[in-house]
Amino acid sequence: MVIANTKTIKEKTIELIDALKSTCQTYGMGNDGNEYKIITQVFLYKFINDKFGYEVKRINSKLANAPKWEIAYAEMTEDERLDILDELSADVPQLYPEYLIANLWNQQAKGDFDLIFDSTMTDIADKNMAIFATQTTQNTKIPLFEKLTQYVTDEAQRAPFARALVDKLVNFSFEEAFTQHYDFFAAIFEYLIKDYNTAGGGKYAEYYTPHSIATIMARLLVGENADLHNIECYDPSAGTGTLLMALSHQIGEDRCTIFAQDISQRSNKMLKLNLILNGLVSSLDHAIQGDTLVAPYHKSDDGQSLRTFDFVVSNPPFKMDFSDTRDKIAAMPARFWAGVPNVPAKKKESMAIYTCFIQHVINSLKKNGKGAIVIPTGFITSKSGVENKILKHIVDEKIVYGCVSMPSNVFATTGTNVSVLFFDNSRKTEKVVLIDASKMGEEYKDGNNQKRRLRDFEIEQIVSTFQNKEAVEDFSVAVTYDEIKAKKYSLAAGQYFDVKIDYVELTQEEFEAKMAEYTANLQTFFDEGNALQKEIMEQLKKVKYE
Fold first, then answer.
1. Which helix (H) or strand (E) holds 537?
2. Cα–Cα distance for residue pair 13/172, rounded to 1 Å
3. Is the dihedral of CA 373, 379, 380, 384 positive or negative?
4. Burial of 456 by CB count in 10 Å (0-12 exposed, 13-18 middle, 19+ buried)?
5. Residue 213 burial (10 A CB sphere; 0-12, 13-18, 19+)
6. Of residues 60 and 498, which shows the higher confidence score?
7. So what's the pLDDT on residue 165?
8. What pLDDT is stored for residue 235 in this prediction?
9. Whole-prediction pTM value?
């Protein structure tokens, strides 16, 4: 009796990820600092291996009809293979027969299999360096893959480790996934990296933006069914690329180019994977590793001023110690027009670096560009310092056109309450939409942490209310810039809600009964207070005499 495998491609992909993580655990690298490199790169290797097979079978009927396409591909003449490679789309890596997983499988008995495995990965990276590498601000190329078995400390265990990884790959195929779209890959990517975004919530690029917030930002920036073409999108604190992926999906992946920068090496590797999974290979060249504030890579044609973009998104680190680079940043007053936070005498890690990113986001907008940035909710009512200067600027210049305050505990690594500011550099907005979504969401457990997430119907409510500029009781208001100034530049929706007084009709007897009840309660409180005071005095006397 044959039992059909009814598992979905999503379930099977998650099983593959779990199996790879289990292998790392078996070989002593569970929660190791290098585990993310192994998991993300082996996953990507399998993805491009299957993508290559899928595409060459579409090009060549001989391969499509072969019982094992890898064998048929290896038996072809070099000219035949080159003809196929010439027809391949630029977003598919070029693989020789010796690069394929099937070839690795056949070589597992060799004693130096770890060296074979590593050289296969690095050879693929070298062959595809022109398109599939990212780079640093100093134009150093970061290849697609690196040697992985070196992270196993015991040299005798490196070959078995490589064999164990290949074992996990051969019985799985991504082919079903190539008909899937953004939502599938967003969920898979989130699952793939979830264990690697829990340490360092306040560090550069270690904030992972929840998919729901990324979706809200993208939909409110782009709108629904927008007919856009040749759009340039940018994130100066890109992290793993969640915001950019949501934005590109809302616009259309084939209608936009992605530009990104982030200081984190880890994030750059994950961003690279995310771009490839989402069909944005042509943007890899614009995914830069380096310090955006000190050395922004993306410049205009003159090579001096910042490049500007149609859409800019950012979820920057909120607070961190950047005292080593603070003077360099402060020496650029044209870029940081509201100033740069001072270095505190104590708690250097509390420097509000997000204020520098707000200024950078605004500076990076085209004349009619739009932007959105995640900030700590405390910013929207700030009364002093750099924060207040920025707040006044975005209101006085009519740049801000909305603010959505999110539920607490929506981020994986911090309990900080967050809001999202929305900018429109066309400065044509008449009313600013302020939404208080802090009471939304459902609670769930994430390990030992109590978290909250927005549900689909709540996302729809936020988006529709914002787009329609609706005033909803205790939820949203649409206010003028003058009204905001009258409230001392506050962007907190709650400060604009009407104070409600419930009126209840009472008879004379009911009124007198209520008053008598209040009087009795007050008398009770006074009596209890006096008794407590006497007791305390007596105790103090005893202490004194003793």
1. helix 508-545
2. 8
3. negative
4. exposed
5. buried
6. 60
7. 97
8. 98
9. 0.87
Compute the distance between CA of residue 455 and CA of residue 453 in angstroms, rounded to an integer: 6
The yes-or-no verdict on residue 203 having pLDDT over 80 is: no
For the chain, the average pLDDT equals 90
b/e for 79-98, b at 16 or more Cβ within 10 A?
eebeebeeebeebbbbbbee
Q: 10 Å Cβ neighbour count for 314?
A: 26
Reported as type and span, the H/E element at residue 464 is helix 456-467
Nearest to 13 by CA among 155, 150, 184, 165: 184
Q: d(Cα 194, Cα 35) in Å, to the nearest integer? A: 12
Please name the residue ranges forming H helices in 128-240.
129-132, 158-170, 182-193, 211-222
CA 404 to CA 435: how far, in whole Å?
A: 5
CA–CA distance, 200 with 254 (Å, rounded to integer): 34
504 torsion bin: left (phi>0), alpha (psi -120 to 50), beta (else): beta
Taking Cα atoms as reference points, which of 162, 168, 157 lies closest to residue 19? 168
pLDDT at 204: 36
Rg from Cα positions in the chain: 29
Query: Quick count: other Cβ atoms within 10 Å of Cβ 256?
Result: 24
- Of 167-181, 239-253, 440-454, 486-500, the poorest mean pLDDT is in 440-454
* pLDDT reading at 4 higher than 70: no
> For residue 491, which amino acid is it?
L
- CB 243, CB 394: distance < 8 Å: no
Distance CA 144, CA 131 (A): 10
CA–CA separation, 293 vs 157, rounded Å?
A: 43
464: β partners? none
Beta strands 442-446 and 418-424, pairing class: unpaired
Q: How far apart are CA 121 and CA 117, in angstroms?
A: 7
